[in-house]
Design goal:
With about 500 residues, the chain is α+β, with helices and mostly antiparallel strands. The protein has 23 helices and six strands. The strands form two sheets. A four-stranded antiparallel beta sheet has the order 4-5-3-6, with helices on both faces. Strands 1-2 form a two-stranded antiparallel sheet. GO terms for molecular function: RNA-directed DNA polymerase activity.
């Protein structure tokens, strides 16, 4: 198979991954890329042409501040579809050389997997860690990770690493051009966060660290920069952590001091213990009524812990929601803003309770009315998405959606979902106003959302779509899709 044919295959894999994960990401697409998938064969040739360009730089990147907790955020890179496909296709080509060199102890972003961030792989890593502890009662466990890992990956060092393991010079040149363009365009550094491609390249960057650990005959597991190490000798674990830290510093990385600890066996087992949750799911599946009480007790203990146990909250809420159990309803309503970094999960739980829809509407209206959502773009987007999914018609939400659409100084991402809210659930006169906003809008993603909103508001001039389908921007595919007159434009999955 020629290099060109291989590259085409990697591009197809990147596209399959895009369709597979669709809206189930931290940054879901406003219409699940439904305007691109039917025309992939035609769009593919355009992307391939750019993929062969050794000097290609990203066309458009928007940094979205994604909350990690109440205060801190991480900058997720929202790539254009073309940029994302090119970046992932190049990374898949790199993975052909990297993946065979990775230890079986590395669980993230293996080239055989389609998902961006696999919960299954994360659980497998923790399961392997529990197996280590179960097999040897004398083992202790050390845990560590890297502070702001992706942001501190040095592109020149990464390029040298890739060359050392046999990655082709043309691939390295293209990646170097892409990543340097990313740094210049975003005034940031390192690898774009939120992309599977970055996870693959991060594995390459940590290969020397993996090899170092193996030299000291230490059992370990790793998912990205989260590492667990096992040995019966505490001094050996401490010495290994120090050596790892020196290896990090040699690559201008910093070990996260607050997250680095050596755990006694009991503490290690508690840290890794998922047995209680596994039993709850098992007995719920058998229809045991007392399992419901166990689930509710787990949720109560999680929210009342100091600090609250977020992992157990993330487990409890969707499980309660699946059962349409409103046990956590009051907490969820009161916590949407204070737990805004978990607002997507909280709102998905509330969506599962249709008998509480009016209370949900009042709460969403109150939050948008009282909270400066320009400083909470993730929360604002989630609120509009939930309102769309639940079909909540509200004059208050409509007014707030118009404020978001018209405010070109705020993050573009929630503006797209605000536009869709207006298109689906606004007033009959909104179509004309949406067209006015479209004509004055410069951001391509917001223009795309406004086009869809105009269609949903039943105010779509066919001539406009005909002109767009003959254009050169990504909007031509949106126009082609809308000209097919779909019965319903999809909303993001979850």
């Amino acid at each position: 198979m020629t290099g060109s044919q291989l590259r085409s295959r990697f591009l197809d894999r990147a596209a399959e991954r895009l369709w597979a994960v669709e809206g189930r990401l931290d940054l879901p697409d406003v219409i699940n890329f439904r305007d691109l998938r039917p025309f992939w064969k035609d769009y593919r040739s355009e992307v391939l042409e750019h993929l062969h360009n050794t000097q290609y730089t990203p066309n458009h990147i928007e940094l979205v501040e994604h909350p990690k907790d109440y205060i801190s955020t991480r900058p997720l890179a929202r790539l254009s579809v073309q940029d994302r496909l090119i970046y992932e296709a190049l990374a898949f080509e790199v993975a052909e050389s990297i993946d065979p060199l990775l230890s079986d102890s590395v669980f993230n972003h293996r080239s055989r997997h389609r998902s961006v961030h696999s919960v299954t792989d994360w659980k497998l890593m923790r399961k392997k860690a529990r197996e280590f502890l179960s097999a040897d009662k004398d083992l202790l466990m050390a845990k560590t990770d890297i502070a702001s890992f992706y942001e501190h990956v040095e592109i020149d060092v990464l390029s040298m690493d890739l060359a050392a393991v046999g990655v082709g010079e043309d691939v390295i040149t293209k990646l170097w051009s892409f990543l340097n363009g990313f740094e210049r365009q975003c005034h940031t550094w390192g690898l774009p966060q939120g992309s599977a491609a970055s996870g693959i390249l991060a594995n390459a960057y940590l290969l020397p660290v993996d090899n170092l650990i193996q030299q000291f005959d230490i059992k370990f597991v790793r998912y990205s920069d989260d590492m667990y190490l096992f040995d019966s000798n505490e001094e050996k674990l401490r010495s290994t952590l120090q050596r790892i830290n020196r290896a990090f510093r040699a690559r201008h990385l910093n070990m996260s001091a607050p997250k680095t600890r050596i755990l006694a066996r009991k503490d290690a087992e508690e840290h890794l213990d998922d047995m209680r949750k596994d039993l709850i799911l098992y007995f719920l599946g058998l229809g045991k009524p007392w399992a419901v009480k166990d689930l509710q007790n787990l949720f109560v203990s999680a929210v009342n812990a100091t600090p609250p146990n977020e992992r157990d909250i993330k487990f409890s809420l969707p499980t309660l929601g699946y059962r349409k159990d409103d046990f956590a309803f009051s907490w969820a309503l009161d916590s949407i803003k204070s737990w805004h970094h978990l607002s997507a999960r909280i709102l998905r739980y509330l969506e599962k309770l249709p008998h509480k829809r009016k209370d949900l509407q009042v709460t969403l209206e109150r939050i948008l009315d009282q909270v400066p959502t320009v400083d909470y773009p993730f929360l604002e987007r989630n609120i509009f998405e939930t309102a769309i999914r639940c079909g909540i018609r509200s004059d208050v939400l409509r007014a707030k959606a118009w404020l978001a659409v018209r405010d070109r100084n705020r993050s573009n991402y929630p503006r797209e979902f605000a536009a869709r809210y207006i298109g689906r659930l606004g007033n009959p006169v909104d179509g004309q106003l949406l067209k006015m906003e479209y004509e004055g809008e410069s951001h391509i993603d917001v223009r795309r959302a406004l086009l869809v909103a105009m269609y949903e508001a039943d105010y779509m001039p066919t001539e406009l779509l005909r002109n767009l389908e003959n254009g050169t921007t990504i909007l031509k595919w949106t126009a082609k899709y809308l000209l097919r007159a779909p019965d319903e434009v999809p909303i993001p999955k979850f």
